[in-house]
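Predict the holo structure. Ligand: zinc ion.
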Amino acid sequence: MLGLLLIKCPKCGSEFKGEKPVKIWGKAGARTGLFDCPSCGARFKAPIEEKVEIKEEVSIKNMVSKLKEVRGEFIQTLKNLREKIKTLETERANLLLEIEELKKMAESKVNALESEISMLREEVKSLRELLGCTDTEKE
Ligand SMILES: [Zn+2]
């Protein structure tokens, strides 16, 4: 595609779109064209500006690949997070089990202490009876 950038006539200075050169030389990106000025009719050579579309296309491609990259990273992060969550959930379950066991242990300890205390109370009671302090307890 030929550029739509304005070409300036070196003779009269008028600007026009260089869409239809009389002749073209060179490779893509470095082309020269032979133009006829529509105002004064002068024929002159001028560099042809290739359309910037090519560059834009490239940058769009870059953007797309960058987006894909970002998406890939995001998916990886998500995967990592899921694995982390899984590990944490397992750990939590284990901790809950441990807490449950500790609770049971504490409960049995409390039960043991309670029965020991009631035994001691009985002993205190019988000792008081032996000492003849039964009046104070009003039995
Ligand atoms: Zn001219």
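The longest strand covers residues 31-36. The pocket of zinc ion is lined by residues 9, 11-12, 14, 37, 39-40, 42 (CB under 6 Å).
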